[in-house]
Amino acid sequence: MKSLKTRIKIAVAMCMAVLLCLSATGMAAATSEPPAEKSYYFDNYYTNWDTVYCYAWVGGEQNAAWPGEPMTQESGSALWKTTLEEDAYEWIIFNNGQNVQTLDLMILDDYDTFSGSHMSSGKVNGYWRNANEYITYAFLPYDYWDNADCYASYWNNSIQQNWPGIKMNKSDNYYFITLPPEAQNIIFNNGGNGKQTTTLQTSSFTSNSIALTGSTIGQDPYGNTLYEITFLPPLP
């Protein structure tokens, strides 16, 4: 028979082995991290959908049943956002939850934003880009527009105008709009209710901060009162 001393040594060794296993399991659980995620955006300015959904898939795996996950609009922007597990999917469709959608789009590693620009075979087509290309402008109406919400309507040769445009995001007394850099023309307005700036060219902006002076400069052909603007020191 084994001596008592030997049996004690064996028991201690077994306990140590169990503790080491438990410790290793605990460390693995503590150091395991959730899968990396990536934000994706859809520029809804051209499509102007009331809601936007994201349907992503690879093989038989999807992020959600059709029409996908609802996206969230970024304040003061035509961009709608969703978050997906990074590298989990190869294809994506943006849609309005009903019967209008983009083509089947291959997800590209170097881009995070799809901008719809035209129809192709009855579906929305466009191009990939990055959200960090977009530019934010601040607009200060003071109280000349009776504290009405402010909108920004923008366009160029490749961007169709949307009226009254995107509702701007208010912070303190400023209203903010984030738009693509190729948006050459912009009109700030009070929601299409008769007060607006003239058509402004972003290429001539001397600051990212624009304000009304309080002076009017006539009316446009539709009877809207046109307000003069000035540039303030740039905001960070």
UniProtKB/TrEMBL annotation:
Protein name, UniProt field: Starch-binding protein
Residues covered by the Starch-binding module domain: 41-105, 145-201
Keywords, ordered alphabetically: Signal
Lineage of source species: Bacteria, Bacillati, Bacillota, Clostridia, Eubacteriales
Gene3D superfamilies membership: Immunoglobulins
Source organism of the structure: Candidatus Scatavimonas merdigallinarum
Signal peptide residue numbers: 1-28
Keyword Membrane: no
